[in-house]
């Protein structure tokens, strides 16, 4: 942000809540670029506001960001509905602190963000503020400029919808990390037998190339099909990059263990994983649309509340 080096009290107040504002916007929008734009727009509104009338900066800024994010979500809805192939959220690099908090990590996981895509903008904003940030119904009603009754209704609908599509279970973070490392090694070595041990019987691979790069336009489903797909990775040329030129790194993406693939001069794709109660991989999200890899390419790690 283009702010003077000597920050005044208003800038300090904004900076104090900046991480929170990005966290709210990213979960509502599912893209880091849009979330950053919304935070920037919130800064402009904050700068222009009569702050002597603002009793609670946190509530005021959350209201601005929630409404800007809902507005942007409505304007991008058609674009997402006409997207080539599956639309996946834009991945972000996260730090170990985000991964250590199970509830926080789950709330920013690809799997949950994909489910949130199916909610209306209001339901999504209400769900994020209530379930992730534990705002009261009264605070949310003020933030999204609706009645408390309307907010309760939206929260109930959103919660039921999410629970039906995303069953919750206790995730063993160490087990997830171990399975990801073994999957990584088996993919590199073309070890189909190990891959089949690590994948759930009804595993689903979602690939997002956005029409910019070649990817499967429909989900790839089933243990053997997905295992063969990854066993062949180490021997196949991908986007014109020979296997010997491709680098892969295990890292933290969206609160969980993931993989970043890089060519000689750019990030090529990311993989993130969802796990079943037995700790096997139940879903793989592969983002290869270059427009969605800027947040990973710039290397910024987000410690999200």
Automatic annotation (TrEMBL):
Keywords: Sigma factor, Transcription, Transcription regulation. InterPro entries: ECF_Sigma-70_Domain, NTF2-like_dom_sf, RNA_pol_sigma-70_dom, RNA_pol_sigma-70_ECF, RNA_pol_sigma70_r2, RNA_pol_sigma70_r4_t2, RNA_pol_sigma_r2, RNA_pol_sigma_r3/r4-like. Pfam families: Sigma70_r2, Sigma70_r4_2, SnoaL_2. Residues 110-161 form the RNA polymerase sigma factor 70 region 4 type domain. It comes from the Bacteria. One of its GO terms (molecular function) is sigma factor activity. One of its GO terms (biological process) is DNA-templated transcription initiation. Residues 181-280 form the SnoaL-like domain. SUPFAM superfamilies: NTF2-like, Sigma2 domain of RNA polymerase sigma factors, Sigma3 and sigma4 domains of RNA polymerase sigma factors. The keyword Transcription regulation applies. Residues 14-77 form the RNA polymerase sigma-70 region domain. CDD domains: Sigma70_r4 (cd06171). PANTHER family: ECF RNA POLYMERASE SIGMA FACTOR SIGJ, SIGMA 19 FACTOR. Belongs to the sigma-70 factor family. ECF subfamily. Interacts transiently with the RNA polymerase catalytic core formed by RpoA, RpoB, RpoC and RpoZ (2 alpha, 1 beta, 1 beta' and 1 omega subunit) to form the RNA polymerase holoenzyme that can initiate transcription. This is RNA polymerase subunit sigma-24. It comes from Streptomyces swartbergensis.
């Amino acid at each position: 942000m283009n702010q003077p080096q000597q920050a005044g009290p208003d800038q300090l107040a904004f900076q104090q809540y900046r991480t929170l504002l990005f966290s709210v916007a990213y979960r509502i929008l599912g893209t880091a670029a849009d979330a950053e734009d919304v935070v920037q727009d919130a800064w402009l509104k904050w700068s222009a506001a009569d702050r002597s009338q603002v009793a609670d900066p946190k509530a005021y800024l959350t209201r601005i960001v929630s409404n800007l994010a809902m507005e942007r979500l409505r304007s991008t809805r058609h674009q997402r509905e006409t997207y080539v192939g599956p639309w996946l959220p834009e991945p972000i690099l996260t730090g170990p602190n985000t991964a250590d908090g199970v509830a926080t990590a789950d709330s920013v996981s690809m799997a949950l963000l994909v489910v949130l895509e199916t909610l209306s903008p209001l339901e999504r904003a209400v769900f994020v503020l209530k379930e992730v940030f534990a705002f009261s119904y009264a605070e949310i009603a003020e933030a999204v400029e609706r009645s408390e009754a309307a907010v309760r209704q939206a929260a109930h609908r959103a919660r039921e919808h999410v629970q039906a599509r995303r069953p919750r279970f206790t995730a063993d973070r160490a087990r997830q990390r171990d399975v990801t490392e073994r999957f990584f090694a088996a993919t590199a070595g073309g070890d189909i037998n190990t891959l089949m041990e690590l994948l759930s019987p009804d595993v689903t691979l979602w690939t997002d190339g956005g029409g910019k790069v070649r990817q499967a336009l429909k989900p790839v489903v089933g243990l053997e099909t997905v295992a063969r797909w990854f066993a062949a990775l180490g021997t196949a040329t991908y986007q014109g990059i020979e296997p010997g030129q491709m680098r892969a790194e295990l890292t933290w993406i969206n609160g969980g263990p993931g993989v970043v693939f890089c060519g000689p001069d750019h990030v090529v794709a990311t993989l993130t994983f969802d796990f079943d109660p037995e700790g096997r991989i139940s879903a793989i999200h592969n983002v290869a649309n270059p427009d969605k890899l800027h947040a990973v390419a710039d290397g910024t790690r987000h410690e999200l509340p």
